[in-house]
């Protein structure tokens, strides 16, 4: 880490000096030696310097055409996956940018995409038509259903990425953005959208979850979240209006939640 921090302190960086250390940096991202966010004392900490280095990668890259006919900055490109990693990438329509950590047993179904800085831990499933935005952090045994969007948060530097903890299920067509944290064992039902500007109504405990002091919506452990609506005041005579809200309808063990989803 020290070599990267020292490099960031330099005022005048030349491309020829940057590229070798950039390649080492991407390898460390791929191997999980460094990551955008990590848990310390049960709290998530953001490593701002990792984001800063990723931004330098875009700054010092030159646009080229790769052998697979894609056109991108030469500092980016496709992540190479080895057989020893035990990662399933079942089609050429799966695109994983270089600089993504993939734990053993991760599966990508086509088509899907993961951007630089993403961390996906062991035995997680990324289903068809999923987009995992830059710097998102996904834990072990997570199922990301078809058509899900996990938002990317590269800038501003201090902004938290989307964090999905272990054993989470995210239903098809959901969108999780703007630094949301989904805690361990939670279930996000199909079609749920969670953003910083969308309060979550906890119908079990009778409270409303709003952004914390870090600007994050935090979905509690083992919560089951479904899409709902809330009636709002209407200026139109004879017309009722409502707005979208996510609702927590239940808490329970993973087995109980799986049984609920099968009903």
Tell me briefly what this model is.
By secondary structure, the chain is α/β, with parallel strands linked by helices. Helix content is 17%, strand content 30%.
Can you describe what's shown?
With 263 residues, this protein is an alpha/beta fold. The longest helix is centred in the N-terminal third of the chain and has 17 residues, at 15-31. 17% of the residues lie in helices and 30% in strands. 35% of the residues are buried. It is built from four helices and 26 strands. It has helices at residues 2-8, 15-31, 48-59, 254-262, and strands spanning 37-40, 43-46, 63-65, 71-73, 88-89, 94-96, 101-102, 107-108, 112-114, 119-120, 125-126, 130-132, 137-138, 143-144, 149-150, 163-164, 169-170, 175-176, 181-182, 187-188, 193-194, 200-202, 207-209, 218-219, 223-232, 241-251. The mean pLDDT is 92. It has one domain (78-262): Hexapeptide repeat proteins (UDP N-Acetylglucosamine Acyltransferase, domain 1, 3 Solenoid), CATH 2.160.10.
């Amino acid at each position: 880490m020290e070599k990267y921090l020292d490099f960031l302190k330099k005022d005048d960086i030349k491309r020829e000096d940057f590229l070798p250390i950039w390649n080492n940096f991407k390898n460390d991202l791929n191997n999980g030696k460094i990551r955008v966010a990590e848990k310390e004392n049960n709290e998530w900490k953001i490593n701002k310097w990792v984001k800063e280095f990723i931004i330098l990668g875009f700054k010092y890259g030159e646009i080229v055409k790769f052998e697979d006919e894609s056109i991108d900055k030469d500092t980016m490109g496709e992540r190479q996956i080895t057989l020893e990693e035990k990662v399933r990438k079942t089609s050429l329509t799966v695109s994983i940018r270089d600089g993504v950590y993939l734990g053993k047993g991760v599966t990508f179904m086509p088509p899907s995409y993961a951007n630089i800085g993403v961390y996906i831990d062991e035995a997680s499933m990324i289903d068809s038509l999923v987009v995992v935005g830059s710097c998102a952090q996904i834990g072990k045994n997570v199922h990301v259903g078809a058509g899900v969007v996990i938002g990317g948060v590269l800038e501003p530097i201090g902004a938290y990425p989307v964090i999905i903890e272990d054993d989470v299920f995210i239903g098809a067509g959901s969108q999780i953005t703007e630094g949301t944290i989904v805690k361990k064992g939670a279930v996000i039902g199909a079609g749920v959208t969670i953003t910083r500007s969308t309060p979550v109504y906890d119908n079990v405990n009778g409270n409303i979850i709003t952004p914390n002091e870090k600007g994050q919506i935090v979905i509690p452990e083992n919560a089951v979240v479904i899409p709902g609506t809330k009636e709002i005041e209407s200026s139109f005579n004879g017309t009722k209006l409502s707005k979208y809200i996510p609702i927590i309808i239940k808490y329970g063990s993973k087995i109980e939640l799986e049984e609920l989803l099968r009903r």
